[in-house]
Design goal:
This protein is α/β, with parallel strands linked by helices and 383 residues long. The chain has eleven helices and four strands. The chain has a four-stranded mixed β-sheet with strand order 1-2-3-4, covered by helices on one side. Strand 3, helix 1 and strand 4 form a beta-alpha-beta unit. Helix 6 packs across helix 9 and helix 6 packs antiparallel against helix 11. The chain is elongated and about 110 Å long. The N and C termini lie far apart (74 Å). InterPro entries: Permease_MalE. It holds the Pfam family MlaE. It comes from Commensalibacter nepenthis.
């Protein structure tokens, strides 16, 4: 708020004077008190050292010019120092708007909070970390269950998920990521073939380079590398998008209107990954084998037919089923974890970046951990 009674005159510097009339303090305010001029005077802490307690300080505004929040901040300092000395402020002579604004302020400014020093308490820290981890795991599983319920409601035509949102997420997670999936997996297959050719040549086993590329690609690398790329690219984008919605209070608006956030936001994100990642897994296998084929043609002088016959002869069909199953599990994990991190983020612009970083790190670590679990399960069931 700004009052400007003397806009035609040049601004006068704000000044204050504390005078006494029959031992009654009077605070004289002169000039223009405008925060934009950055010349609001500072108030000394001992301004009321000559005043007795339980007395009232009058404010004289006869020479007060234009004012805005700069005057209100100054008066808040006056009010704060007066309350410390047990002195009251007579605001009757202030402009009405200034009286209302000063009346909204507390008598005492809040004390600055200091961060407590870190104390080395290993058992306490371990317990806190365990509780936080279990709580996060429980909330993530709850989101996953809600998303599964949303799938059935979508199939029955009673879901809040919009088909346009699902198609948009499929396009962002699938076709838009084909270039980076192609480059990463082509190079991975090429590296495998190159390393395999160098080592196997020592044992005159060059022909088994195709077996190495095929088994490693279909069973492990295509699924894991695709999941890592999607986690860094799409998972981080999901977390940043939801964190931005948190900052803009769009999530709160959805809750106010009674729209389930899990169905409206999380379900299309998770479904888009479940639909696209198995397809990208097969595409990644093709690109990796193609990379291995190019290196083998250049280094081992094998034929195209011979390399493909050796590759697919070494990779049974159940390996494709195993890799595809892992890919679906990776997709569900990336979708739910990235959306959960976005939902738990703060409301500032900096929290958007933090949420994206957390989603990428959690996605990559989680994918590798899940792959280790699948490796143990595969050994148990004999795949």
């Amino acid at each position: 708020m700004t009052t400007d009674n003397k806009s035609s005159l040049p601004p006068q510097s704000p000044q204050w004077t504390l005078k006494f009339d029959n031992n009654k303090p009077i605070l004289m305010l002169n000039g223009d008190w405008l925060a934009k001029n950055n010349n609001i005077p500072q108030l000394p802490d001992d301004i009321f050292k000559n005043c007795s307690a339980n007395i009232s300080v009058q404010i004289n505004t006869d020479q007060l010019g234009s004012w805005d929040s700069g005057l209100v901040i100054f008066l808040w300092d006056v009010k704060n120092l007066a309350s410390i000395k047990g002195i009251s402020i007579d605001k009757d002579n202030l402009p009405v708007a200034a009286q209302q604004l000063v009346g909204l302020l507390n008598d005492r400014k809040p004390e600055p909070t200091t961060k407590p020093k870190y104390q080395f308490r290993p058992l306490y820290d371990l317990g806190e970390w365990t509780i936080h981890s279990l709580n996060s795991l429980g909330v993530t599983l709850q989101l996953f269950i809600f998303a599964l319920k949303g799938v059935f409601k979508f199939l029955m035509g009673r879901s809040y998920m919009r088909l346009n949102d699902l198609l948009r997420d499929i396009r962002a997670a699938g076709p838009s990521a084909l270039v980076i999936i192609s480059v990463v997996n082509f190079l991975m297959g090429s590296i495998l073939a190159f390393v395999g050719a160098v080592q196997l040549r020592k044992f005159s086993a060059d022909a088994y380079v195709a077996n190495l590329v095929g088994i490693a690609t279909v069973r492990e690398l295509a699924a894991v590398m695709t999941a890592i790329v999607i986690s860094g690219r799409t998972g981080g984008a999901y977390a940043a998008r939801i964190a931005t919605m948190q900052g803009n209070e769009e999530i709160d608006a959805l809750k106010v209107f009674g729209i389930p956030v899990t169905e409206y936001i999380i379900l299309p994100s998770m479904l888009s990954l479940i639909i696209t990642m198995p397809i990208m897994y097969l595409y990644a296998c093709l690109m990796s084998i193609f990379g291995g084929l190019i290196v083998s043609l250049l280094m081992l002088k094998v034929s195209v037919i011979g390399f493909l016959y050796q590759t697919f002869g070494a990779v049974p069909f159940n390996q494709f089923i195993f890799g595809g199953t892992k890919t679906i599990a990776f997709a569900m994990f990336i979708g739910v974890s990235s959306c959960y991190i976005g939902m738990k983020s703060g409301r500032s612009a900096a929290d958007v970046g933090v949420a994206a970083t957390k989603a990428v790190v959690a996605g990559i670590v989680g994918v590798i951990a899940l792959d280790a679990v699948f490796a143990v399960l595969a050994d148990i069931i004999g795949i």
